[in-house]
Amino acid sequence: MSQCIKSWQIGSVAKWKGPYGDFHYEPNKFRHVGMLAAGTGVTPLYQVACSIVDNEADETFVQLVYACRTAKEVLLKEELDCLSEYWNFTVLYVLSQDPSVKQITRYGDKVA
Prior knowledge:
Blueprint: H1 2-6, E1 32-38, H2 42-54, E2 61-68, H3 77-83, E3 89-95, E4 110-111
Parallel strand pairs: 1-2, 2-3, 3-4
């Protein structure tokens, strides 16, 4: 999708469809929830993760693996770092094309 958007010129017209379907999360239905995201795909997973950590009665453990090409493309970095302060949330940043990961890392960040 991002490659398509990069090719747009001023005045380009785009037609959008979706999203389709729905997702209903039930607190404590699973002990662990693994999430995989790339690029902007992290946004719906962030919302689910927020609802889990904000619910004190929910003991579900969330592990997010978030892939981007470069550190500059990481969305919601501060928000995800705040979530990682909760006992039941961890995030692993996977950067495929960035030799200088020091740009976004802080002590304790997990970067692959």
